Amino acid sequence: MKKKLIYIFILLFTVGCLDDKSNYDYKDLNDFTNWSVDGVRYSYTLYPGEEIKFEPEVHFSIDTLSPDASYAWYSGEEEEMILLSDKLNYTYVAEELGDFTLLFCSTDNKTGVTFTMEISVYVVAPKKNGWLILSRGAGNESQLSMILSKKQSKVVYVDGEEKPRDTIVYVGELMNVTPGLGQGPRKLVENFIYPSAAGFLVEDEVMVLQESGVVELDGIELAPVGSAKNEFFDGVPDNFDPVDAVLCYDGKWLLNADNYIYMTNLSVAVDLHSGFYLNDPSLNGKKVKALLPYFKGDYTDNFLVVGIGEDNTYFGIMDDGQCAYNDKSYTITPANYVGSYLELGNVPERNHPFLFRDVEWEFVFHAWANRANYYTSPAYISILKNGDDYYWHYYELNAETDRYKPGQKMIVESSEYAQLPAAIMNDYRCAALLPWKELLVVASGNKLNIYNYWDGLILNLTSVPHFGSEIVGLAVKDYKDYNQLLNAHLAVALKSGEVYVFEVKCNQDKDSAELLELYHKGGFGEIVDIEYKFGHGTNPSYPGLY
């Protein structure tokens, strides 16, 4: 039978019992300070259809061995709770996606005092968050696999007191989740809808670039929902063969194998297929050798796409699409300059002459450095090679003025660079950036190195993993955590088809780190790309784990 329970009633009832001092000696009363529950965590993450059997061990301050107590489980929000069970043990079944609150109550029957514990249950789609692995199968087949993750609470000690903290656990994998994906795997890119859009089940998509054509997958089941070839307004251009992409809330930019860009301008920010590509290349046919990674963690965090032309000179593409305030249709306002070309303007004289114009060095790595918002400019870090020498380069770019006007240029607001130590660049394979920790991870053959580029320090790894195969891919899940309570996660893909996931636990001075193994499994085949799937547009910059 359903029964409503109001939190305030519990509190008033508890206070009433504590005020009745006529019948009890308070030295012998159970009290809130020493009441505790074992065997139950503060939060759980479940997939639909999964269940938890709660078997709490309740400890009162007295009467612990044989308490005179009654128990109840409730669900719902604070204003209105529904009775689920009046037994000590209870089995919860996840039936629908969403965030749910359970309240466990234990009542001391001698005094009527009720002790409560709130438990959060997150029911999520299995494929929404985790590591995506793109592999090459037999016959050059594209195979997409996923390492599944869940959020889980743990108890840590802060200033001598127990505090609940969240962590991530990896609970298995799904192999070849989208059969018949295509052939010739190249790259994975995640895309998000407008970050303030509420009530949308599919909040992200995954673009798979491959030789047989670009395919987009929904973020819940990883099922095909679109193909670039079907989104051209006036026919697919000759030699259409995209090798890279930048995706945002209001547009898609595809870099073709012949160095042309094809762009679609979206009209609705929650429909990632609401626009169409044109047959003619964008930017008046400008030839482009690279599009840099684009940060989509918040709609205020980026306003231009950065590229490098065939002349080895940087340029920008304006990306200022917005939705009207409080417009629940999420229509992108037509008063924008999305797709406008920004020529590179001033470069400070103190910078190396080859870092932005006529760059003679070879680019081997680009990453978004997670610094942009209303108050700072879009920031990047790159690795360049000059002969046998490697250099890191950190830089911030901006438009000339706050309000874009046609013909406006892109300017360099800051630029720092230095040579990378030969000890970590010997037999260089790939790299990744821990953006919020400001650390470079570099793979040299089958060895991992972590480099504090601002201080010029190679971190001492107190636990050095031994890999039996060379490293072919790195990916990170870092956290914007100002309290330094959360550690980044690092995925390492090997040529042997194995994938490791580590927690990167740095010391405060960023001169030492411990790699704690969280996951390891083989059988992923010839790995082409590995990426973390954030699942929602605010997650890349959100100060949380999931």
Identify the strand order in the major beta sheet: 1-7-6-9-10-3
**Multimeric state:** single chain
Q: What structural category do the secondary elements indicate? A: mainly beta
In percent, how much strand structure appears in the residues? Answer: over 45%
Q: How many helical elements?
A: 2
* Integer-rounded radius of gyration: 27 Å
How would you describe what is shown here?
The protein is mostly beta strands. It is 3% helix and 47% strand. The strands form 10 sheets. Strands 1-7-6-9-10-3 form a 6-stranded mixed sheet, with helices on one face. Strands 33-37-36-35-34 form a 5-stranded mixed sheet, with no helix packed on it. A 4-stranded antiparallel sheet has the order 13-12-11-38, with no helix packed on it. The chain is globular and about 85 Å long.
Give a topology summary:
Layout lengths: L3 E2 L1 H13 L16 E3 L4 E4 L4 E4 L2 E3 L9 E9 L2 E6 L4 E4 L4 E11 L4 E11 L6 E7 L5 E17 L2 E14 L10 E8 L11 E7 L4 E4 L5 E4 L14 E6 L3 E6 L4 E5 L22 E4 L12 E6 L4 E5 L22 E3 L18 E7 L10 E8 L2 E11 L10 E10 L2 H4 L2 E7 L4 E6 L2 E6 L4 E2 L1 E4 L7 E7 L10 E7 L4 E8 L5 E10 L4 E8 L13
Parallel strand pairs: 3-10, 33-37
Antiparallel strand pairs: 1-7, 2-5, 4-8, 6-7, 6-9, 9-10, 11-12, 11-38, 12-13, 14-15, 15-16, 16-17, 18-19, 19-20, 21-22, 22-23, 23-24, 25-26, 26-27, 27-28, 29-30, 30-31, 31-32, 34-35, 35-36, 36-37
